[in-house]
Amino acid sequence: MTEKKKISIVLFSGDFDKAVAAFTIASGAAAVNYEVNLFFTFWGLNVIKKYKNRNAIGRGFLARTFNFLMGGFSHLPLSRLNFAGASPKLMTNLMRKRNVATLKELIEASILLKVNFYACEMSINILGLKKEDFIPEIKEILGVAKFLNIAEKGEILFI
Amino acid sequence: MTEKKKISIVLFSGDFDKAVAAFTIASGAAAVNYEVNLFFTFWGLNVIKKYKNRNAIGRGFLARTFNFLMGGFSHLPLSRLNFAGASPKLMTNLMRKRNVATLKELIEASILLKVNFYACEMSINILGLKKEDFIPEIKEILGVAKFLNIAEKGEILFI
Amino acid sequence: MTEKKKISIVLFSGDFDKAVAAFTIASGAAAVNYEVNLFFTFWGLNVIKKYKNRNAIGRGFLARTFNFLMGGFSHLPLSRLNFAGASPKLMTNLMRKRNVATLKELIEASILLKVNFYACEMSINILGLKKEDFIPEIKEILGVAKFLNIAEKGEILFI
User: Fold this and answer.
1) What is the pLDDT of residues C126-157, one digit of tens each?
2) pLDDT tens digits along B66-108
3) Rounded (10°) angle between helices A86-97 and A16-31
4) Cβ contacts (< 8 Å) between C21 and chain A: which residues?
5) Cβ B83 vs Cβ B21: under 8 Å
6) How far apart are CA B34 and CA B36, in angstroms?
7) Chain B residues with CB-CB distance to C145 below 8 A
8) Are strands B116-120 and B138-142 parallel, antiparallel or unpaired?
9) A6-138+151-158 CATH choice from 3.90.226.10, 3.40.50.970, 3.40.1260.10, 2.60.40.10
């Protein structure tokens, strides 16, 4: 019996377009039977924060300021040509028009296809967040050593 | 007989400096006999768009707007310190002065060294482009599953 | 006897937050006995430039201008929400407050844990720099072929 193919993605970026790329690869790989691990860290944590929590979360003023500025899922900017948020909407419209899955649909597909979601312990500590601030699909909050262990013998992408 | 070493690069970025990095790695790896696959997606598609097509391409107004804003090969910005396009020119001058290959030369070297060029099906669909809008060296337009298949058992970089 | 696990990181970015990510992965992997290779290229060279050298280095006016603009270790910007350098300081304060290692501490830990530092020959040539402009922990200045050789059979991340 051969080992299952594996791909692990560190999603560091909180940019809309890079999140689309990460979830396209994640769901695409899971669809052809890869084990897929998504590790959210730094700005990438925005993608999996609960919507309502935009303003209030984090311990301490500094952390709250950062969290506010980071926004959440529906506030992801584009890595280029953002135009104060107009472009992500424009791109979402284009995706709908072309029958390409939107980011929301790609995330849902990834969950259905059993992509594993992990969150980075250190970033969460810095920001004073906790497990409850994220969508319930987060399997575990973990550090580098544990992540390397999970990712071992597979591909690793840093996005 | 041992399998040929393999490296696959997803070029997501359309930044001039990142394109230089991608093609430096690609041509350098091909020169020491690696199989090299370059997969152009999102902004990275700019690098391989035909020059003349700056204004007119894409189906529909939204896609045309995006394509116009994205520019083409000779309009790639720097990821930092871009100064309205002055810095890529400055860097190209530096590269010439130091006898380092310019981006154009790196792309030509990659083609000569038989680096495989692929373009991302989904991004092309979103933008309403077609194979003819790109340089003829593009071997195939394909999706995630096919790409993973090609990249299997090699290194994968996301740039 | 099994081969030692290996991870190699190309640090292309000069952003403060991405440098934190790179050194967190590097020191974390080294701590669990991975062989770790850090390859500094382009903007990433800033992280390992000697502090005092901010203004004067590089051969020729163009290179000096670039080097000045690139700054050095203590001038790394954040990849997002930089606010003229305020945010890296804010993030460093947060890291101290939460007892998370700061970038300086992560670099020191990486050195203690014997992470290998390499610098990219081509970028250094473009900028007209030399080995003496960098911290003494740089083991070697090398090109793509040599790097691939060192990274072979391990993971490669591009940050």
Assistant:
1) 888 888 889 999 999 999 999 999 999 999 99
2) 666 566 666 787 776 665 566 777 778 777 777 778 898 999 9
3) 30
4) 10, 12, 41-42, 158
5) no
6) 6
7) 28-29, 31-32
8) parallel
9) 3.40.1260.10
